[in-house]
Amino acid sequence: MARYLTLEEAEQICRRHGLPLTVQRRMILEALAPRTDHPTADQILVDVRARAPEISRTTVYRVLEALVRVEVARKVCHPGAAARYEIVRDRHHHLVCLACGRMTDFEDPRLDQLPLPDSKAYGFELTDYSIQFRGTCASCAQTAEVSARVAPAERKRIGSKKADRK
Fold first, then answer.
1. How far apart are CA 87 and CA 32, in angstroms?
2. Which residues pair with 75 in a beta bridge?
3. pLDDT in tens, 106-161
4. Three-state SS letters, 138-164
5. How many angstroms separate the CA atoms of 130 and 141, rounded?
6. DSSP classification of residue 116
7. N or C: which terminus of the chain carries fewer CB neighbours within 10 A?
């Protein structure tokens, strides 16, 4: 299981990088640190506004980007979805549900030992990687399975009502 940074460790990294811990930064760190659900900036905004209604969306986005810059947080993106954030120290990967967007941490030591490919021909220097596996989570798969069983019966019932009206 990935080891997440504690709030104290995150604060130390910010200080080491000369990033002052303003009241707003501390509140955003406190909102992000305990979460393991990879919240979006808007979800963090909701949490922070419960304590400080005056905080702006722009402030939350700027603080999150600053935390990413000093490597306290990671921005985790996948196509067609809002960027999500996490505070984490150890390498790990993600399972992403294409139906609901849920993102779950995934660890497999074999994946952590993949050699970095030579990307110099592209003028790019790789320093790290994280793999995203996309598919359907158990909850969405179960919902789809139930819908598939109910849908034919529902279509048949609706079809017979239409026939009755003719």
1. 7
2. 85
3. 888 899 888 888 888 899 988 888 888 999 999 999 887 766 665 555 545 545 55
4. HHHHHHHHHHHHHHHHHHHHHHHHHHH
5. 25
6. P
7. C
Least Cα distance to 25 among 52, 69, 59, 68 occurs for 59
Going by the DSSP 8-state scheme, the letter that residue 117 receives in this structure is P
Phi, psi of 67 (to 5 degrees): -65, -35
Q: Cα torsion for 69, 74, 86, 84, to the nearest 10°? A: 100
Q: Are 90 and 109 spatial neighbours (Cβ–Cβ below 8 Å)?
A: no
Distance CA 15, CA 26 (A): 12
Tokens of 20: 């002052």
Q: How far is CA 22 from CA 25, 34, 70, in A?
A: 5, 19, 15
The helix or strand, by DSSP H or E, that contains position 65, with its residue range, turns out to be helix 57-69
> What count of Cα atoms within 13 Å lies in the side-chain half-sphere of residue 30?
14
Element at 45 (helix H, strand E): helix 41-51
In this predicted model, what pLDDT tens digit does every residue of 52-103 receive, in sequence order?
999 999 999 999 999 999 989 989 876 677 889 998 777 788 898 888 888 8
> Cβ-count burial of 69 within 10 angstroms (0-12 exposed, 13-18 middle, 19+ buried)?
exposed
Q: Please name every residue paired with 74 in a beta bridge, in sequence order, or none if there are none.
A: 86
